[in-house]
Amino acid sequence: MMQGYVNKNCEATILVVVRNNAKLKSINTVIDTGFTGFLSLPNNIITELGLPWSYRDRGTLGDGSEVLFDIYDAVAIWDGKAKEIEVNSAETDPLIGMSMLRGYRLQVDTIEGGLVIITDLSERSPIL
Question: What keywords are annotated for this sequence in UniProt (predicted)?
């Protein structure tokens, strides 16, 4: 189980550690259920971590416009385990997307300071 909180802008946030070899960085991220990728980071953090470039991909933003994103390879510490992920380069606040949340339950108490809980669905007891 992982925990975060709802910030003053009513955004669900969670701290994620991103790694590239020996470089580690804790990053406060906003959960974006409209983002289908794993994680987006601004260029300065990608450069700081020295993430290797992988490819360029087209994406559709919330307003319907299409943009090109550079995609980088990284490892995130997610639910206590190392997870290989793709990082979209975007000059926004760092975002966690639905690919990172796949296989997890997201619960949000939508008040300032509210609890954000992410639990692994594979650890649920089967319903009899």
Answer: Hydrolase, Protease
3-state secondary structure the chain: CEEEEECCCCCEEEEEEEEECCEEEEEEEEECCCCCCCEEECHHHHHHHCCCEEEEEEEECCCCCEEEEEEEEEEEEECCEEEEEEEEECCCCCEECHHHHCCEEEEECCCCCCEEEEEEHHHCCCCC
Residue 46 sits in a domain whose CATH number is 2.40.70.10
Report the domain count for the chain. Answer: 1
| Token pair in block for residue 63 | 């307003």
Residue count (the chain): 128
pLDDT tens digits, one per residue of 82-98: 999 999 999 999 999 99
- Can you give the residue range of the structural domain that contains 24? 2-123
pTM (predicted TM-score): 0.88
Give CA 116 to chain center in angstroms. 14
Closest CA to 2 of 123, 122, 120, 103: 120
